[in-house]
Design brief:
Blueprint (H helix, E strand, L loop, with lengths): L19 E6 L3 H13 L3 E7 L2 H11 L3 E4 L7 H12 L4 E6 L4 H9 L4 E4 L3 H13 L4 E2 L20
Parallel strand pairs: 1-2, 1-3, 3-4, 4-5, 5-6
Helix pairs in contact: 2-3
């Protein structure tokens, strides 16, 4: 029997045939392609759009209304930290999960403080991406295990989430 905290309610995306709709934001086309392929191979996900900058992501988030936005941090223009707020301003229900090359707890803390609900390190994304997305859609906060920290230890009020 599943533990109740590990079983998302049926009304959430990705349950009962509804795919979790994902917008991918990364300035490297190869990374976007890899993320799209990884999502395409996993059940319950649909990559609905791609952007190379936070500025490009804003109108896409407004138009596509994704459940999750995968956001790189280091991009031209505003960058990912600012991009988290920009996307959440136009699509407040979107859950932002940072996908970054930086395996640094303080960087994850900054991303969560900016409004992200997850932090995945690119070096481990092959194993952690889809579990992370399922976890945040079910209401959790995900910090890549590679960082060796408990997400509850960040003690951050997350936008749109009860504290």
């Amino acid at each position: 029997m599943d533990h109740p905290l590990h079983s998302p309610p049926a009304a959430l995306p990705g349950v009962d045939g509804d795919d979790i709709r994902v917008l991918i934001v990364d300035d490297h086309r190869m990374m976007r392609s890899g993320l799209r392929m990884a999502l395409g191979r996993a059940d319950g996900f649909a990559a609905v759009g791609e952007a190379g900058t936070a500025e490009e992501a804003v109108p896409l988030a407004r138009a596509l209304r994704p459940d999750v936005v995968l956001m790189d941090l280091e991009m031209p223009g505003a960058g990912g930290l600012a991009g988290i707020g920009m996307v959440r301003e136009v699509e407040p229900d979107a859950l932002v999960v940072v996908v970054s090359m930086h395996a640094i707890p303080d960087t994850a803390r900054e991303a969560l403080a900016a409004g992200a609900v997850g932090y995945v390190v690119k070096a481990s994304a092959h194993a952690t991406l889809t579990p992370a997305l399922r976890h945040v859609v079910a209401g959790g906060v995900w910090v890549d295990p590679l960082l060796g920290v408990d997400p509850g230890g960040f003690h951050l009020p997350l936008p749109g989430r009860p504290t």
